[in-house]
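Write out structure tokens for Cupin.
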Amino acid sequence: MKRLLATTLMLASFSAFAHEPVYNQESIKVLQEHALTNVPGKKTIMLTVDYAPGQATVPHSHTGTAVAYVLEGAITSRVNDEKAVTYKVGESFYEPAGSRHFESSNASQTQPAKLLVVMVLDDKAEVLTPLKQ
């Protein structure tokens, strides 16, 4: 997780345009992380992602499976070859292992947004891997 946060900070970029996404400024908080004793070599992580207006996560992939639930605001997500979908409070989405997550962003330029994410992944895997540009 420390490597993820370091990578996130290193990849920080700022845009001069108000409607361009601001990458790598989101706040990620790990709530729980546990080895799955019934599935050797796997772990589960529960985390929250807080987005200020206009913020986004850098395009990335996951080696593990993720389920996300919108706690606050609205989140726009585009995974693999699917169209972008905006999810509102109380809605959730699923990302299969190996997905390419091209967009995960706050849908609002004026209001914050927050996700609750639960993942199952290899015990040594990073939460996300930035996609090559």
